[in-house]
Predict the 3D structure of the following.
Amino acid sequence: MKIIYANIVWFCLLILGITNANVNRFRLVEWEAMGDVRFKYTIFYGLVLLLLVVSIAGLLLKRKWGFQLALASNVSFTLLPIALLMASVIMLPTLPVSELISHSALNLVAGGVSLFFWMALVLGADKEKCVV
């Protein structure tokens, strides 16, 4: 049961980080010229935040759908940094991979933490404690 509560804390940290990124996006001058793109980013990250909040609610209520949504969220947050890194490698082939990794380091760390929680939820015995 402890891993579920640790996962809730992780999702709260993700919510704080995503909210901070959204607020900073509205403060940067570079984004002012791209209002439509900024709006799409805000909508996308707003939906991600909604997914995390619903997942937290399901985990706190010990529902099966909350557990499954937490699994799906962790899978998404594990694969997203890897996909972004691979897209950067493909789109910028002249840039050294070490520089791309240094720019993506925080995303890769977040992906690693999500991978840990994904595996902990899959291998843990907490899923039997979740009711329908």
